[in-house]
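Contributing: when you submit paired examples, paste them exactly as shown. First protein:
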Amino acid sequence: MASEHPTPPKSDTEPVAVDYWELTRHPLPTVIFLLPLLFIYELGVILLSESGEIATRNGADHWIREGLLSVGFEHTHLLPSLIVIALGIWHFAGKYPHRISGELLTGMLAESLLFAVLLVAKGQTQDLLFQEFSARDLLSIFPPRAAASAISYVGAGIYEEVLFRGMLCTLLYAGGRCLRIPMQASLILAMIASSVLFSGAHYIGPAADQYTHFSFLFRLSAGLYFAGLFFCRGLGIAIGAHTAYDLLVGLLLPAVITTS
């Protein structure tokens, strides 16, 4: 016998419960989390340039801007604007929920710091495996340069993740799927290929670092680490973890060692 008061069907507009672990991968939380970092980096470069101090843009930032310049786009604020616009289009095209909260952003910050500390620990452990290197060799990958250095690290966290994970990883994965490579294999190949390019890019150009087996392998493993974060936890947390790691290793740890 049918109920006299049947449960009404759910409306298409009825909000669907989405938990924290899924929300962090959505474009709206990502762009809100990213905006303060973009503002700090772009403003820092401008202020340092006006004060007469050399503020070198991060390599990935420079490469993307060069690409835009080659097709006639040279406005200073175009690149960060494009990132925000692209995430906005992704948000509206994907019909993601308009949901953001302080708790969500605090959780993303906490995750970023946690994953940064874990990568520091992994790097120190890897350093111990290279007996010919001292404990300070890992720090020499990121020599400290005060305010200009801090701004550069923020730029690295943003633009290296946008370029190597947000763009390259996604394109490689999509290309693998178009070639009918199984999903898991496409994912692994995208992670490996983008990480090799990520590591190798640090030895190209006028500001290139000196190549060593240790630094190449460490950056390769770091690339795999960030690619895993990108696919599992989203672009926002990958950017946050990368930025926090560079600041920890480039500024905080050298200061602690110097005063100890």
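Second protein:
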Amino acid sequence: MSVKHMFLNADPVVQVVILILLLASLTTWLVIFEKILVLRRADRDFMLFKQAAARQEDGLINITDFSELAEPVVLAGIKESSDASGQETRSEFRERVERSMRTEFAGLIDRLGKRTLLLATVASVSPFMGLFGTVWGIMNSFIGIAASGETTIAVVAPGIAEALFATAMGLAAAIPAVVAYNKIIGALRKITKEALIAISLIGNYLARIHFCVDRRE
């Protein structure tokens, strides 16, 4: 009894369950491959962002030192620092500048985490869908026993086979989604940690430059 034969001879309800789980599994893998590429680049860019922020020792930030992903964050801080009132303390100035950079970064991290909730949904729902197919297949086995009055393997096996097939499909969809979701959340946390360190360094640098200029004037 092949997988194809089990699917073609399964109850229509079980067939629908299996097709939904197959679609969920394919979607999960597409998201996984996309996130591998996107987060690998983001991790590298924000590690370089932190390194570049630590190197800013001249009188002016060189925006070309920052990666494409980090550049809008730095520009948000520079723009905010140019709109300063003379009544601010250094800590107030720095907090305002860093807040603008954190806001810009929050939008970026939201884009990086896009479709992550889809993985969480697949991970939580797929086992239950597989269980539904399992229960339906076993129910068909009992119906077959009742209709034939026999309990032979030939009567029981088709329903049990399609039930186990649905269970396997549920697990095949859920397990990669769970692993990928945890990995993505871990990667986003690492990126966030690197970015917040860099934002703090840039905020301190901009505050130092701003108040040095004020004192010279």
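If you have annotations for the second protein, write them as plain sentences, like these:
The first helix runs from residue 3 to 8.
The chain has one domain: 3-216.
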